[in-house]
Amino acid sequence: MTLMLCSCSYVYDVTVSMSHGRLIFDANPQWFADCVRVVSVTADDDSVRATAASGDDEDLVRTGTFLRQSISHDDGCKNHFPIAYGYTLKGRAHVYDNGGVPADMAGQRAPSVAPKPLHTGVAYTVSTVTGATGYGCGRFIIRQDRTVENLGCS
Predict the structure, then answer these.
(1) H-type helices in 3-144, by residue range?
(2) What is the largest CA-CA distance in the chain?
(3) Please, what sign has the CA dihedral across residues 52, 55, 60, 64?
């Protein structure tokens, strides 16, 4: 007898391109990765860091986050790929409910980081969440000539 376990989660690649001077994140439509809920960009190099601004989660910035937005899963599907770097996701900010988080976090807004300037020649990872169970990932470098090299995800 064979036992099969199934999951409702899915993983997809996020590709990065440059269009009219803007960095664009996109996902292959065959994955049906829509309803973008979270976007995060982090530097892969521990020596590359941004400066926290008012309202930023300082711990995230200190550990290499250049952008982090998270909206509520209860909002309608207002954000779809492609998404430009720095675009503000539409919807209410994600607030932790009582399920699955320590009591002191319940009711608090999820940490965020406003978009920071990205550097050429640095490898970054973009992570996304679509719906409640889709997880996207891509790695990229912005070259000196402002083109983008996709590195896949690891």
Answers:
(1) 58-62
(2) 58
(3) negative
Distance of CA 119 to the CA centre of its chain: 18
Chain segment 117-151, per-residue pLDDT in tens = 999 999 999 999 887 788 899 999 999 999 999 99
Decide: 78 and 69 in contact? Cβ < 8 Å.
no
Neighbouring C-beta atoms of residue 55, cutoff 10 Å: 8
Q: Cα torsion for 140, 109, 12, 50, to the nearest 10°?
A: 10
Write down the pTM of the prediction: 0.85
CA distance 56 to 31: 32
SS3 (DSSP) at 75: coil
Number of H helices, E strands in the chain: 1, 8
Residue with tokens 């899963």: 73
Token pair belonging to 33 = 């990765």
What does the alpha-carbon distance between residue 69 and residue 92 come to, in Å, rounded to a whole number?
Answer: 11
pLDDT one-digit tens code per residue, 15-51: 999 999 999 999 977 666 778 888 999 999 989 999 9
